[in-house]
Amino acid sequence: MGEGMDRVRVSILGATGLVGQWMIKLLANHPFIEIVGLSASPGKVGRKYGDVVHWFIPGDIPEYVKDMALVSTDPADHKAADVVLSALPNDVAWPTESKLANAGLNVVSNASPERMNPRIPLINPEVNWEHLNILRDLKGNWMVKNPNCTAAIISMPLKPIQDLIGTLHIVTLQSVSGAGYLGLSYLAIDGNVIPFIKGEEEKIDIEINKMLGKQLVDHYDPWGKPIYVTATRVPVKYGHTAVIHAILNRNADANQVIERLRRFKSLPQEKELPTAPREPIKVLDRVDAPQPARDLDPMAVSVGRVTIRDNVLRLVVIGDNLVRGAAGITILTIETMKTLGIL
Ligand SMILES: N[C@@H](CC=O)C(=O)O
């Protein structure tokens, strides 16, 4: 699989959406990942990216993509790519992704369908990069999925303390950008809290259990911990928050937990991968931290309010839903696969 390859050529599906835009921004000047194709919906094929995109994220449209002509999602249009990155919306992703996979292309996808497929690794690189090793046994092409944005953010502080946890109770406060650029009307969310996000609670439970479990070639053994989730939408633009209460299975001290969170480093940090945050978990001492408006980091998660009382650990975590939770995790997965020699 790509032995001796210096550069990784990628194409992006859904390149004009919020996650696609972040992928393009993060890949500007990347040391070894190069964009060779951008695709968007059929009506835009053949037009220049810069003429079509409604650029919404911070900064300008990077020069290097402005004149690129958009291609279709047909496998023939992605033959030059070593990996196709899918930033397609969940409701349309699978038919396209499976068509590309059946044509022999490698896919890393941010979309939810097939995340729980026992043969498809679900990867948050710092949390479970080892799960990628099953791809070494495959003869042909492969597919890798990103977790749901909230599962990506929450799994990070759980990883270094996973042995202490018995049961989890989680309430999320998820920003409006998680629903996409056109996801929620201003009238629905301004001055409001919506205590329901379709499918989200189940995804957080089963995806965290998959990532913190063991991945074998043809099945995975889940972590096996009960996770009770209430997911809410709040009038915040960027950054998802989760309030976590963990019933511990043994005595622990809050300072020990903080120490484990602060010291946590994984393969992406050891290999100094370009998109890896130096400190993946920032523990903030401020009494009112973490806040999405003040403490959001693109790739690290920020943790505060760490206490233990009656054997119940409480912590609050925030993370960038579009970068750590989507575009950034995709790129870090590619970097991790390259450093492992899988790509
Ligand atoms: N489903 C999430 C988006 C991240 O995957 C949300 O609705 O916020």
TrEMBL record:
Keywords: NADP, Oxidoreductase. GO terms for molecular function: aspartate-semialdehyde dehydrogenase activity; NAD binding; NADP binding; protein dimerization activity. It holds the Pfam family Semialdhyde_dhC. Gene3D superfamilies: Dihydrodipicolinate Reductase, domain 2 (3.30.360.10), NAD(P)-binding Rossmann-like Domain (3.40.50.720). This is Aspartate-semialdehyde dehydrogenase. Residues 9-135 form the Semialdehyde dehydrogenase NAD-binding domain. The active site is at C149, H240. The keyword Ribosomal protein does not apply. It comes from Vulcanisaeta souniana JCM 11219. NCBIfam families: asd_EA, PRK08664.1. GO terms for biological process: methionine biosynthetic process; threonine biosynthetic process. Belongs to the aspartate-semialdehyde dehydrogenase family. It comes from the Archaea. InterPro entries: ASADH-related (IPR051823), Asp_semi-ald_DH_pep-lack (IPR005676), NAD(P)-bd_dom_sf (IPR036291), Semialdehyde_DH_NAD-bd (IPR000534), Semialdhyde_DH_dimer_dom (IPR012280). The keyword Secreted does not apply.
